[in-house]
């Protein structure tokens, strides 16, 4: 796999920031036409396989006949395109800088899923301004009426970028592995969601577990402390078992659901897609938007 050199992007970013936007951005979304399901998939730390989960879950949804759009919301260090072996000409940085519209940067992925790729190696984009977030979410809101499922692959951690993309969704899935550091960081993430963003519920998905029982034990450990110290309900979504074929697929820039549909991890992804499809989201935005805006609007009003 050849590494991409993004030095030109970094060098040219300052000039792009100074340039005047080439089209007006509406600050209010259009009236909602459909009922697109928006799911944010996040994690307290990196290395838990979150992006792999997003890609394979998107593929599994598409196998159920869903039109799927995936947003790589790690806007400064995106790698979904690398995982899928894609080479997009444009990415979210071009949208944020006002050079492209979202529908102009979409690239096709495996299984008819559509990808909104992020940039990589642009430090300034790791902390978007409130205005940039509102404008980007507005564009997303205008675009997603044509799809059934929008999956948001956030960055790892508890930055404002991660939190704002997460709480804009109908459902938040927190990915955790059995490692103690992953469990600790997942709790920290849920703590911020609860205390600072007033989130009342999220789902937990365990990854890289030896078996289903280990996944349930990780959930039990987290659930004990969240029930005791946080005002947030954590529902156990399920687990994805460790599968050596996932590593093989990553090296070949493919996803396991595509190359090995009958392997253990692939079966987990398809089971999860079925389970999520059957459940009704616990919250839906009201009025004229597909996404949740209140936390951004309130923050702007307080500045």
Q: What would you say this structure looks like, in words?
A:
- This protein is of the alpha/beta class and 303 residues long.
- The protein has a single domain (34-302), classed as Rossmann fold (3-Layer(aba) Sandwich), CATH 3.40.50.
- Helices cover 42% and strands 16% of the residues.
- The chain is built from 12 helices and 8 strands.
- The chain has helices at residues 7-18, 50-63, 80-83, 92-96, 130-143, 160-167, 180-195, 212-229, 244-251, 256-259, 264-278, 294-302, and strands spanning 37-43, 68-72, 107-108, 114-116, 149-156, 171-176, 201-209, 233-241.
- It has an 8-stranded mixed β-sheet with strand order 3-4-2-5-1-6-7-8, sandwiched between helices.
- Strand 3 and strand 4 form a beta hairpin.
- Helix 2 (50-63) crosses helix 11 (264-278) and helix 7 packs parallel to helix 8 (212-229).
- The protein is globular, with a radius of gyration of 18 Å.
- The termini are far apart.
SSE inventory with pairings:
Elements (H helix, E strand, L loop, with lengths): L6 H12 L18 E7 L6 H14 L4 E5 L7 H4 L8 H5 L10 E2 L5 E3 L13 H14 L5 E8 L3 H8 L3 E6 L3 H16 L5 E9 L2 H18 L3 E9 L2 H8 L4 H4 L4 H15 L15 H9 L1
Parallel strand pairs: 1-5, 1-6, 2-4, 2-5, 6-7, 7-8
Antiparallel strand pairs: 3-4
Helix pairs in contact: 2-11, 7-8
